[in-house]
TrEMBL record, chain A:
The keyword Lyase applies. This is Class II aldolase/adducin family protein. It comes from the Bacteria. Keywords: Lyase, Metal-binding. The keyword Metal-binding applies. PANTHER family: 3-OXO-TETRONATE 4-PHOSPHATE DECARBOXYLASE-RELATED, FUCULOSE PHOSPHATE ALDOLASE. Residues 201-378 form the Class II aldolase/adducin N-terminal domain. InterPro entries: Aldolase_class_II_sugar_metab, Aldolase_II/adducin_N, Aldolase_II/adducin_N_sf.
UniProtKB/TrEMBL annotation, chain B:
It comes from the Bacteria. It comes from Geomobilimonas luticola. Pfam families: AFOR_C (PF01314), AFOR_N (PF02730). Belongs to the AOR/FOR family. This is Aldehyde ferredoxin oxidoreductase family protein. Its cofactor is [4Fe-4S] cluster; tungstopterin. Residues 4-200 form the Aldehyde ferredoxin oxidoreductase N-terminal domain.
Length: 385, 580
């Protein structure tokens, strides 16, 4: 298991969701082992030893957003993620204030993690558990980090800066943490691609690009390319930066169910191919796009569960925004009708779909454009409030 | 009491006495219902011979049965298996469980043996045993048709009456309480059927708003799961959706597990069945998935296991013959998994697997224990022993293995051996992570971590089988959502962790019963074939024989995680006394 711990420690550093040197894992089969920063490793072991689970990560996030969220509220003990993906799988994220942690320690964290996948500990970081693998602990950490990121940026838009140091932290985040988002330097294979081996290779490569350029966290998102009579699509629960062997060929004609393990968004991909001239599709959850997709200014609207029920198509920087839950929950019906012309669509609280009529160069460029526009628009609106 | 009714109906079939008893609340809280409750109620009876009149046959529903909690209208039937000698529980759906709960019962406890065939009839507040001489010898559909006006039916067919060691209890015509031969236990009690017509829904919910929110969370996860509601998933194609996948992964048991690849399986894949039969959806009450598939005329179509074991395992690719074989099993009340595997072992032993057109006749012979069927009715282990070649039986603890070759998934290999009812994939359901990538993918050709993973999954599934939720729900949802449902329904706070602890209590109780009946590490073993013969590799997939030393190492890790001795037994002979 040490190899798994080393791998996911590297990933946390590479995706910059955790601070280098402030990461620890615990894992157990017939005995408990820990690795990483000594204080966090001790904590991770003490918590996991109280749980019937295989892996646990305790790490300090690279951004102070979680602590700010905790301190901005005085009467709550959990946050409810606003983005639909993490809310579907996490429901809510408990947090523990520093005085509660001093009193309750690992026992308290174990009790909370006996009920939820991740917990925020003020002054310590994010602790997340994986029932069956170390990777699962990493995924849950990543989900909590994503949910916190989105919620905090939304909170700032609606509530502004409330605490000392928040404004400075955000400026530091903007100038130091955020990087220019571009497709520069990436090499895409010119399309249309028809040879299965080339398609598999290109999908694997572009999947890795999306993670490396920060368009998706490793575990989120999906990607596909159509061949003559097949859709080649990433598998469910696949990391986009590790797609080798994790791409399902799915016949357009329903002649085989081998693709039962394909991404939950297979129906959306298929429908887009059926109704447009797209040859490739990218779907990611770039964070500013997710935040901005939820900034609706319609007044007097009676819809409350906008992410599911909103029937309207809004336009955000030239990109249509629609509602719809994951998988069979409506997204597959609402995205295909709006994505054809521009090759891009935003799903409320979820993420971005882009297409390419020839190859992934176009789809990737469009996703970069959408996220850059949303990033710019976010800071413009924040400055204006 | 919210959730539970708190009442059990006890029936002494020997004397014909029926009476109600109150179930202790601490039993219900500690064992939930379904499998857990049944297993707890078996304490003190667990070393009896399966066919002893005093051996109870327990029907138990769960605390969420009768509510709108998705997939929870299910029933566990619990007793000791005559096929394996282990504790045994079978889960089935249909409409019977909700009716039983609506009649006011969490469980039925059936003991003794009637001097003549009877039917237990429950109608609202009344319960009675009625003579059933005229039904004895009837098929399951005939029995159900006769009794249908009196309510939902759980019945045995001729196989159960004749003591076939893998006879099912059929809950409705298409839901088999399969595996382990509890139909034969029912037959020995001369109980042809239980028919129940519940008066009204009696399951009350403590916090209805919280309950509805939890239901929505579950359904959202179902919709997000490609395995459940995906366009190639089980809601569309039923479990036959697995035919193509398992074959592509080169782990489909073929010709008695001599090979692991059967290209002709495309003849009975999910799309093939839809095309040939116009398959329509059907399933259990309260289930949004509706994974059973029927013909437009209402004939139940085979599930994955039956397709594969009458198909690849016997080298048969004729879909019509497989469908017919499955229908014969449903009519006679036979477990198609054990039937197909027993025929296959017998086929290898005699040097010729059954031909497609021989299946119906052979199955009828088994159900009536005549001709070759007299031997085949004993299951593959006894058949192989009588043929002088015990290695032909592809079973663990005498339970025939289902349609996933363990050389293609090492968690499955371990889970077959640690399952308390013998070689079964459903106790830990490693298919979910080793093949279906839920909740995350694990390396199917590695034992690393599998001891812990299987232990956790066994505990989880013991809790699931006691909530009486469907295993397939957990290809989308998790214990987080079901703990919330249970808490909202009962008003008692449960968490995934506490449900896991409940599952562990249930699992260890079962293991203790088995150890009391002589089971140990020597029985936690795969057939020799899997350790010495490779599977059918190809398309870049190698399927080597399982490394026996590595298997043994992981099994010992599993024992340590479980707190068992190296012999797989309990160091403390008074272990059970410490449990509620």
């Amino acid at each position: 298991m040490y190899d798994q711990i080393a791998k996911y420690t590297r990933k946390l550093v590479a995706d910059r969701s955790a601070l280098h040197g402030w990461i620890a894992f615990a894992a157990q089969d017939d005995h408990l082992l820990t690795a990483g920063e000594p204080y966090l490793a001790q904590l991770a072991g003490d918590v996991l030893g109280r749980l019937d689970a295989l892996g646990l990560v305790a790490a300090r996030p690279s951004l102070p957003f979680a602590d700010f969220i905790v301190r901005r509220t005085s009467d709550q003990s959990l946050i409810i993620p606003r983005d639909t993906e993490t809310r579907t799988f996490l429901h809510d994220i408990p947090f523990v204030r520093s005085d509660e942690f001093a009193a309750g320690g690992p026992e308290l964290l174990a009790r909370l993690l006996g009920n939820r996948k991740g917990v925020i500990v003020e002054g310590v970081g994010i602790v997340a558990v994986g029932a069956v693998t170390v990777e699962q602990a990493y995924i849950n950490y990543s989900s909590v980090f994503h949910a916190v990121f989105v919620k905090y940026l939304q909170d700032l838009l609606t509530g502004g800066f409330l605490l000392p140091g928040e404004r400075e932290a955000l400026e530091g985040f903007r100038s130091d943490w955020l990087r220019p988002l571009t497709a520069d330097g990436l090499v895409f294979r010119p399309g249309p691609l028809t040879e299965p081996a080339l398609i598999l290779s290109e999908v694997t490569t572009v999947g890795r690009y999306t993670v490396e350029r920060g368009l998706v966290d490793s575990f989120f998102g999906n990607i596909s390319c159509r061949g003559d009579d097949m859709i080649y699509i990433s598998q469910t629960a696949a990391s986009l930066d590790e797609l080798d062997g994790c791409i399902d060929p799915v016949p357009f004609a329903a002649t085989s169910t081998t693709g039962i393990t394909a991404s939950s968004e297979l129906a959306a991909h298929r429908r887009i191919y059926e109704t447009s001239d797209a040859r490739v599709i990218l779907h990611g959850h770039p964070k500013f796009s997710v935040v901005m997709s939820m900034q609706c200014e319609r007044e007097g609207c009676e819809i409350t569960d906008c992410w599911r029920d909103c029937p309207h198509v809004r336009i955000l920087g030239g990109t249509p925004v629609v509602a719809g839950e994951i998988g069979a929950g409506g997204l597959a019906k609402r995205v295909p009708p709006v994505i054809g012309e521009s090759g891009r669509a935003l799903v409320y609280g979820h993420g971005v779909f882009t297409t390419g009529r020839q190859d992934f160069a176009e789809a990737f460029r469009l996703m970069v454009e959408v996220e850059n526009w949303c990033r710019h628009e976010y800071f413009r609106r924040l400055a204006e409030r | 009491m919210n959730g539970w009714t708190g009442t059990i109906l006890k029936v002494d079939l020997t004397s014909g006495r029926l009476w109600r008893e109150t179930l202790p609340a601490e039993f219900l809280h500690a064992y939930l219902g379904g499998r857990g409750l049944g297993v707890r109620l078996m304490r003190g009876f667990h070393t009896l011979d399966p066919f002893a009149p005093e051996m109870p046959l327990i029907f138990a529903a769960g605390p969420l049965c009768g509510t709108t909690a998705p997939t929870t209208d299910r029933l566990a039937v619990v007793s000791r298996s005559p096929l394996t000698g282990t504790i045994c529980d079978c889960s089935s759906g249909g409409r019977f469980p909700r009716q039983m709960k609506s009649a006011g019962f969490d469980a039925l406890f059936l003991s003794g043996a009637s001097p003549r065939p009877v039917v237990l009839r429950i109608n609202g507040d009344t319960a009675e045993l009625v003579p059933a001489d005229a039904l004895w010898g009837k098929t399951v559909p005939e029995t159900i048709a006769t009794l249908a006006d009196a309510g939902s039916v759980a019945a045995i067919g001729p196989a159960g009456e004749n003591g076939v060691l893998f006879a099912n209890i059929m809950v409705g015509e298409g839901n088999g309480g399969g595996r382990g031969g509890l139909g034969a236990v029912m037959g020995h009690k001369r109980l042809k059927a239980v028919v129940v017509d519940g008066a009204r829904s009696v399951t009350t919910i403590a916090d209805r708003q919280r309950f509805q929110l939890a239901c929505q969370d579950v359904l959202r996860l179902f919709r997000a799961s490609p395995i459940i509601f995906g366009e190639l998933g089980i809601a569309e194609y039923g479990t036959p959706a697995l035919v193509d996948l398992v074959n592509q992964r080169r782990m489909v048991p073929t010709e008695n597990f001599r090979r692991t690849y059967f290209p002709e399986s495309r003849n009975y894949s999910g799309p093939a069945i839809r095309r040939e039969y116009g398959a329509q959806k059907g399933g259990c009450s309260g289930c949004p998935i509706q994974c059973l598939k029927l013909t437009p005329r209402g004939e139940y179509l085979p599930e994955y296991e039956a397709l594969s074991h009458f198909g690849a395992l016997n080298g048969i690719s004729n879909l019509a013959a497989i469908v017919r074989a499955n229908t014969v099993c449903n009519e006679l009340g036979l477990d198609p998994v054990s039937a197909g595997a027993t025929l296959s072992a017998w086929g290898e032993g005699r040097g010729r697997f059954p031909a497609a057109d021989e299946l119906p006749g052979l199955l009828a012979d088994i159900g009536h224990r005549r001709g070759d069927g007299a031997l085949l009715a004993l299951g593959s282990r006894r058949v192989a022993e009588q043929l002088g070649n015990p290695g032909l039986s592809m079973s663990v603890k005498s339970l025939e293995l289902p349609a996933y070759d363990p050389r293609g998934a090492y968690g499955m290999a371990l889970a077959y051996c640690t399952s308390n009812r013998g070689g079964c994939h459903l106790r830990a359901y490693p298919l979910s992570h080793e093949i279906l990538r839920k909740p995350v993918a694990t390396d199917r050709f590695s034992f690393s971590g599998k001891g812990r993973i299987i232990k956790i999954a066994e505990d989880t599934n013991a809790a699931v089988d006691s909530l009486m939720a469907c295993t397939f729900s957990f290809l989308g949802a998790t214990l987080e959502e079901y703990a919330e449902l249970l808490s909202a329904a009962t008003g008692i706070e449960y968490s995934p962790q506490s449900l896991g602890e409940t599952g562990e209590r249930i699992y260890l109780t079962e293991r203790f019963y088995n150890c009391a009946n002589g089971f140990s590490v020597a029985d936690d073993l795969l057939p020799e074939r899997f350790y010495v013969e490779p599977g059918s590799g190809g398309d870049g997939i190698e399927v080597p024989a399982i490394d026996r030393a590595r298997f043994d190492e992981e099994l010992q890790k599993y024992y340590r995680i479980r707190g068992l001795t190296p012999a797989g037994t309990f160091a403390d002979p008074r272990f059970l006394e410490k449990l509620p």
